[in-house]
Specification:
This protein is mainly alpha-helical and about 425 residues long. The protein folds into three domains: about 110 residues, Alpha Horseshoe (MgtE N-terminal fold); about 120 residues, CBS-domain (Roll); about 170 residues, SLC41 divalent cation transporters, integral membrane domain (Tetracycline Repressor, domain 2, Orthogonal Bundle). It is about 65% helix and about 5% strand. It is built from 20 helices and six strands. The strands form two sheets. The protein has a three-stranded mixed beta sheet with strand order 1-2-3. A three-stranded mixed beta sheet has the order 4-5-6. The longest helix is centred in the C-terminal third of the chain and has 32 residues. The chain is elongated and about 90 Å long.
Length: about 425
C-alpha cells in the first residue's frame, strides 16, 4: 500500500536530518523555536541529538530553555557530558539548575564538574554567554543579531566552524563599514585565544597592552567556551593584588616559601604521619618473607629494583591522569578507558624492562630461577602500578578529595606492597617447589 503524503514527507525529513545534519541545522537556525522543537520531537532521538549539537550557540540556548522537561530528560543524556556542559553553560544559572535536576545523579555530577573552574584559572573569569557566527554568515545577518542583543560590551565577534572550533574574529567596526552581502570569512583576522585552564596571569599578559579587549577562551580541541571581558580581568587583577598583600602577612593563601613555620607544619605533618603508616605497612610485607630473605640474601639486593621500577611506572600514569583531570581532558566516568590504557602501557613496558633486568640478574647471580622470578615480578608489578596510577586519582576525585595532594602516598603504598609481595612471593614458591637457593 502506498505511503500517505504525510508519511513520505516525514521520511524525507528524517533522511535529510540524518545524512545532512549540518545543512539541516543551518536551515533550522532561521526557524522559530516552536518549529525547531517540533522537528526535534518528530525525529528519532539520535537524529535530534545530532541536529541540536549543530545549531549555533544562540539558537541552542533558546531551544534548551524552552524545551519541555520530558523531552529534555530523554534527549540530553545522549549528548556527551562535556558537550552538554558547554551547551548549558550559556544558560541562566536558575535554568541550568532546573535542567540538571532532570538528569541522573551520575551525569549531573559530571556536568557540574565541567561547569566549575578553579578560581585562579581563565575559565573562572570567562563569560559563557557569547555569540558566534559561521564563516559564511553575511554582514546584514550578523548586524541584525547584534542589534537584538543590545550589548555594548561586544567589540568583536568570534567565527567558528561547524564543530564550534574557533577559527577567527571580526571586529564590530569592520562589520559596520562592510557591505551587507559580505561574508565573515573575507573579514576575519586570526583570533588570539587562551586555554580555559590557563592561569589568569596569562590572560593579563595578553590583555595588558590594550590591543585585545575581549579574549576568547577555548578548550584543548580549540572549541570556543566563552570570552574574558576586559572589565572582568581588571577586577581579577585588583583582587589578586589584594590577596598578594594579604599573603605577605600570612593570610588567605596556601603555603609559600615565606609562610609561617606553624602553617607549614600544619599542612605537611598529617601527610607525613600517613606516609609513615603506609611505609610500615609495606615493611610488614617484607617481614612476612623474612625466612626466604634469610635463605637467599641476594633477594634483598634486588628488592629496590622491583619497587623502584613499579613506582616510576605508577608515577608516570599518575602524572598523566592528574593532568587530564585538571585540564578536563578526562572525566570520572572515563576511568575504565584510562585505566585500560595505562594497564596496557605498564604491561608492555614491564615486559621490555623485565627482559633487560632478567639478563642483568642472570649475569650477576648466575641463577636462571632468580632471573625468571624478577622478570615475572617486574611485569606484574609494573602492570598493576600503571593501572593504580590511573585509578587512584580518579577514585579520590570521585569521593571529593584532591588527587594532587594525596595520590602519591596511596600509589607508593600500592606499588611497594605489590612489588615486594610479587617478588618475594614468587621467590618463596620457587624455593619451595624448585629449590631456588
Amino acid at each position: 500500500m502506498a505511503l500517505a503524503k504525510k508519511d513520505i514527507r516525514q521520511n524525507l525529513i528524517q533522511y535529510y536530518f540524518q545524512h545532512f545534519p549540518g545543512e539541516a541545522a543551518e536551515i533550522l537556525n532561521e526557524a522559530s523555536t516552536e518549529e525547531i522543537l517540533s522537528y526535534l520531537r518528530n525525529n528519532p532521538l539520535n537524529i535530534s541529538r545530532d541536529i541540536l549539537m549543530k545549531l549555533n550557540n544562540t539558537t541552542t540556548s533558546v531551544v534548551l530553555t524552552e524545551m519541555d522537561d520530558v523531552f529534555f530528560a530523554e534527549l540530553f543524556p545522549l549528548i556527551d557530558p562535556y558537550i552538554g556542559a558547554l551547551m548549558l553553560s550559556r544558560l541562566d544559572s536558575d535554568v541550568v539548575e532546573k535542567r540538571l535536576e532532570l538528569l541522573q545523579s551520575k551525569l549531573r555530577k559530571e556536568i557540574k564538574e565541567v561547569l566549575t573552574y578553579p578560581p585562579d584559572s581563565a575559565g573562572f573569569l570567562m563569560d559563557t554567554k557569547i555569540i558566534s557566527f559561521y564563516p559564511e554568515s553575511t554582514v546584514d545577518k550578523v548586524l541584525a543579531e547584534l542589534r537584538l542583543l543590545k550589548d555594548r560590551r561586544i567589540f568583536s565577534v568570534s567565527v567558528v566552524d561547524r564543530e564550534h572550533k574557533l577559527i577567527g574574529r571580526v571586529t564590530v567596526q569592520a562589520i559596520a563599514v562592510s557591505s551587507p552581502e559580505e561574508t565573515l570569512d573575507n573579514l576575519m583576522d586570526k583570533a588570539v585565544s587562551i586555554h580555559v585552564m590557563s592561569p589568569q596571569e596569562e590572560a593579563v599578559e595578553l590583555l595588558k597592552d590594550g590591543k585585545i579587549i575581549n579574549l576568547p577562551v577555548v578548550d584543548l580541541d580549540n572549541r570556543l567556551l566563552g570570552v574574558i571581558r576586559h572589565d572582568a580581568l581588571i577586577k581579577a587583577a585588583e583582587l589578586d593584588a589584594t590577596e598578594d598583600v594579604q599573603a605577605m602577612f600570612g593570610a588567605g593563601r596556601e603555603e609559600r616559601a615565606l609562610s609561617k613555620a606553624s602553617f607549614a607544619i600544619k599542612k605537611r605533618l598529617p601527610w607525613l604521619e600517613i606516609n609513615l603508616a603506609t611505609a610500615f605497612l609495606a615493611a610488614s610485607v617484607v617481614g612476612i618473607f623474612e625466612d626466604t630473605i634469610a635463605q637467599i640474601t641476594v633477594l634483598a639486593v634486588f628488592l629496590p629494583v622491583v619497587a623502584g621500577q613499579s613506582g616510576n611506572t605508577g608515577s608516570q600514569a599518575l602524572a598523566v591522569t592528574i593532568r587530564g583531570l585538571a585540564l578536563r581532558e578526562i572525566r570520572i566516568g572515563q576511568w575504565f578507558r584510562v585505566a585500560r590504557k595505562e594497564l596496557i602501557v605498564g604491561t608492555v613496558n614491564g615486559i621490555a624492562v623485565a627482559l633487560t633486568t632478567s639478563l642483568i640478574v642472570f649475569i650477576w647471580a648466575s641463577s636462571i630461577g632468580l632471573a625468571m622470578v624478577i622478570g615475572i615480578s617486574m611485569v606484574f608489578s609494573m602492570a598493576i602500578a600503571g593501572f593504580s596510577g590511573a585509578v587512584i586519582p580518579i577514585l579520590l576525585k570521585s569521593i571529593g578529595q584532591d588527587p594532587a595532594q594525596s595520590s602519591s602516598i596511596v600509589l607508593t603504598t600500592v606499588t611497594d606492597i605489590v612489588g615486594f609481595f610479587s617478588f618475594l612471593g614468587l621467590a618463596s614458591i620457587m624455593t619451595t617447589v624448585l629449590g631456588l637457593a
